[in-house]
Amino acid sequence: GNVVGSNIFNIFGVLGFSGLFVPAGLMVNAHMVAVDIPFMLVTAGLCLPMALWRQRYDRWLGGVFILSYVSYAWYLISNQ
């Protein structure tokens, strides 16, 4: 609950307040639209059914998520 609530607040609250105080609006990087947002949506889409129906995360599933995080971080670092 804390993780979900924190993420929702960070997305809507912080982004909303930032948008209120920037007169020209917030600029979104093209890389973010092409890579970052789809990756976050796919990851969230994979977590939702597992949280609703599996009710248990095994070690191999934790390893898959850690591997995907490391792969994503490596991709971001190598493509700067």
List keywords for this structure.
single chain, 80 residues, mainly alpha
Entry summary:
This protein is mainly alpha-helical and 80 residues long.
Describe this structure in words.
The longest helix has 25 residues, at 30-54. The model has no long low-confidence stretch (mean pLDDT 83). The protein is 81% helix and 0% strand. It is built from 3 helices and no strands. The protein has helices spanning 2-21, 30-54, 59-78.
Write the layout of secondary structure elements.
Blueprint: H1 2-21, H2 30-54, H3 59-78
Principal-axes shape call: flat
- Helical amount among residues, as a percent range? over 70%
How many strand units? 0
Order of helices and strands: HHH
